[in-house]
Design a protein that fits this description.
heterodimer, A: about 160 residues, alpha+beta, Alpha-Beta Plaits, 5-stranded antiparallel sheet, about 30% helix, B: about 575 residues, alpha/beta, Rossmann fold, 6-stranded parallel sheet, 20 strands, about 40% helix, globular
């Protein structure tokens, strides 16, 4: 089953490699991993998307907890949560028809054109992973020149707060 | 007035002093020269110069195992650190508290492929409890304090502190914190009261109980509590390889060691029990074999461990209790004493009757011989001659299993071996660490001719410090455990397990300045041991026992098989 796990960890060099190393050493799978500093400069927040049986997810959570740099951990999948991912897509837009088409599809998905050049558009799109997948499927594959995705970031709904 | 400023090197030495360290094992080199210069100027602790960094780590590790204190080692950057890795991993697998100080190239040179540079923090990351690179002298003292704190609390383990050379030169005021607290590290000490009540209930309902304990009982200083609990309930008790000494071996409640080379009665009881109390043990592959086979019988399992990740890792348990094992056992004992209920006496009697039938198999019996020395016999005689009072270190292989099976440990911290990583070459340096910690104790290293040659250079360190270690070499000319597996599972194709041209160990021992003996006949075993511990008690004695090359370790559970699928003799 797919799980989305949030961590708060000390903003120390090497903390990321401890997490990444743990996953590779124990053979756990990582679908995506994002990390960035928080409003508290001493902490980083990481979101990991992984897959595994209940036993494996339990081990992943326990092993992560054991890492000395990790301050807090939450399996967002255990309760209400929201996840979002950002994608940038560069598409062909060298004809009038293509420009119209790209703009229209982007609008439908609530994306925005953020860069316009002679022959290309760059579209920004935010949403759950499945929405980004759907957007890519809606485009003619030959029109896609490049894509980049951040991986999912997640947060609990309502009063579900992870803070130190 | 401003505080006097100290150099980083002075700070390292002061920290060790303030931490109460008495012995440090190490090897100097470029990146740690400043630290060694300060070691030279002090006499708060003794530095022991080994002959290879790996040995420094094993010695510090065994020092910790035999005392419960944190072992300390210092090595230089680059090859010093990489040579230390096997020792660090050995300690990590057996959860041994250790602080390892490694030199590093100056901060400005890091990443430049400098002479003797390796990414020590990167290389050791998967085999340490935690590690640090200290880039600022102002963080040095606090980092070392944290290292000792992390190494010795919760589930213990080795902590590496990597110190660049320039940091050992930089100045700052010295302050060693009395204690540290870390928001990201708070090991659970107290067990959950509700879970403990559930455990007690389950123990009282047991009809076929077993208490199974591991290294956690030794590390957690819980042998006394374990013994009290077992006796209070009258429950059969078994120890893992790492747990030996946690319960007194000669006791009738003791079933012996369990696992791959465990006793028939321990493994059968484990497989057929209805309630299992696991204490500081982790159901690893050498203990329960195939977890599916184990779970094919219905067990209700209580598991006490300080490390939550050890619980329900290989075997799903019913009552997990995270906490300090000694504390949790004490709580259980307290509750049991206040309870009027007692376990079902009839059922327990029937269970013991069954166990006695298994015990009657006498699975550790072996054929005595008048012509060739049986390795088991040497260990039995060693037990007699030392009256069971020696510290026994071992290397890895058949001799390790015979030591575990035939030397009946009745106290914790007397049996020192590399159980998790299985590091050959551990025994001799480990014996050094034990002898430094216990100068007046009898220390014997049971080894094989393969293992002893992996750190034999330490005979020189032993000479320098006149360590009266007894090296008990069970020499069968083969890498015995490899040979045994080849005999059983590879149709006797003995690929590279015969060790040709062994040295003359007697001469070798003498060359290092020790007493060497060769023993070839069974009747000479005991006299040789008596001489070693009598006439030569103040000398290192290296006894080369030529033992039966065809002897195998029994019982044996083949890898991947279940507990009740043992090969008996």
């Amino acid at each position: 089953m797919r799980h989305i796990i949030s961590l708060l960890m000390e903003n120390e060099s090497g903390a990321l490699s401890r997490v990444a190393g743990l996953f590779s050493a124990r053979g756990y799978n990582i679908e995506s991993l994002t990390v960035a500093p928080t409003e508290d400069a001493t902490l980083s927040r990481m979101t990991i998307v992984t897959r595994g049986s209940d036993e494996i997810i339990e081990q992943i959570t326990k092993q992560l907890n054991k890492l000395v740099d990790i301050v807090k951990i939450q399996d967002l999948t255990d309760g209400g949560h929201i996840e979002r991912e950002l994608m940038l897509v560069k598409v062909r837009a060298h004809t009038y028809e293509l420009r119209e088409e790209m703009k229209r599809v982007a609008d439908i998905f609530r994306g925005r054109v953020i860069d316009v050049a002679d022959k290309t558009y760059t579209i920004e799109l935010t949403g759950p992973g499945a929405k980004l997948d759907a957007f890519l499927e809606a485009l003619d594959p030959s029109a896609i020149l490049e894509t980049v995705r951040t991986g999912a970031s997640g947060i609990g709904r309502g009063d579900r707060i992870m803070k130190v | 007035m401003a505080d006097t400023e100290l150099t980083g090197a002075e700070i390292v030495v002061r920290c060790l002093r303030d931490e109460g360290v008495k012995h440090v094992f190490g090897y100097p080199g470029g990146a740690v020269l400043n630290i060694y210069d300060e070691i030279y100027k002090q006499d708060d602790f003794q530095h022991i110069l080994v002959r290879h960094e790996q040995a420094a780590l094993h010695a510090a590790d065994a020092y910790a195992r035999s005392t419960g204190q944190v072992g300390v080692a210092i090595v230089t950057s680059g090859p010093g650190a990489t040579n230390a890795v096997t020792g660090i991993a050995t300690a990590f697998m057996d959860s041994i508290p250790m602080v390892v100080l490694t030199g590093q190239v100056p901060t400005a040179a890091i990443g430049m492929d400098a002479f003797q540079e390796v990414d020590t923090v990167g290389i050791t990351r998967p085999c340490v409890k935690h590690n640090f690179l200290v880039k600022d002298v102002r963080q040095l003292a606090e980092t070392i304090k944290k290292a000792f704190y992390i190494a010795s609390t919760g589930r213990p383990g080795p902590v590496v502190v990597d110190i660049p050379k320039d940091v050992t030169q930089h100045l700052c005021p010295y302050h060693y914190p009395q204690s540290v607290s870390m928001r990201s590290y708070n090991p659970t000490w107290k067990g959950h009261a509700g879970q403990i009540r559930k455990a007690v209930q389950m123990l009282l309902e047991a009809k076929r109980p077993v208490i199974y304990t591991g290294g956690g009982v030794i590390l957690g200083n819980a042998a006394r509590q374990l013994t009290e609990l077992s006796r209070l309930l009258g429950f059969p008790t078994t120890n893992t390889l790492m747990g030996l000494g946690g319960y007194p071996s000669p006791d009738p409640l003791f079933l012996g060691m369990l696992g791959m080379h465990g006793t028939y009665e321990a493994n059968m009881a484990m497989q057929h029990c209805d309630v299992l109390l696991a204490v500081g043990a982790r159901f690893d592959d050498r203990v329960i074999g195939n977890p599916k086979h184990f779970s094919s019988e219905h067990h209700r399992i209580i598991h006490i461990d300080v490390d939550p990740s050890s619980i329900s890792k290989r075997v799903k348990v019913d009552v997990p209790i995270v906490g300090d094992v000694a504390h949790v056992l004490e709580e259980i004992i307290k509750l049991l004493k206040s309870e009027k209920d007692r376990p079902d006496e009839q059922a327990l009697k029937a269970w013991w009757a069954q166990i006695e039938l298994w015990r009657a198999q006498d699975c550790l019996k072996y054929e005595h011989s008048a012509t060739v020395i049986k390795p088991q016999y040497v260990v039995e005689k060693l037990y007699e001659v030392t009256r069971g009072q020696a510290f026994i270190t071992s290397d890895v292989g058949q001799h390790q299993m015979w030591a575990a099976q035939y030397y009946k440990f009745d106290q914790p911290r007397r049996w020192i071996n590399s159980g998790g990583l299985g590091t050959m070459g551990f025994g001799l340096p480990a014996a050094m660490g034990v002898q430094f910690a216990h100068p007046d104790a009898m220390v014997a290293c049971i080894t094989g001719e393969g293992s002893i040659q992996m750190n034999i250079q330490e005979l020189s360190t032993c000479k320098e410090h006149n360590l009266p270690i007894k090296v008990i070499l069970l020499n069968n000319g083969y890498l015995g455990m490899v040979r045994q597996w080849q005999e059983f599972f590879y149709e006797e194709r003995y690929a590279e397990s015969y060790v040709g041209s062994l040295p003359d160990f007697v001469k070798l021992a003498e060359a290092y300045g020790h007493v060497g003996m060769l023993v070839e006949k069974p009747e000479d075993v005991e006299p040789a041991l008596r001489d070693a511990f009598g006439k030569y008690k103040d000398r290192l004695v290296f006894i080369n026992f030529l033992t039966d090359p065809r002897e195998n370790v029994y019982p044996m559970i083949p890898a991947g098989k279940g507990l009740s699928e043992m090969i008996l003799v």
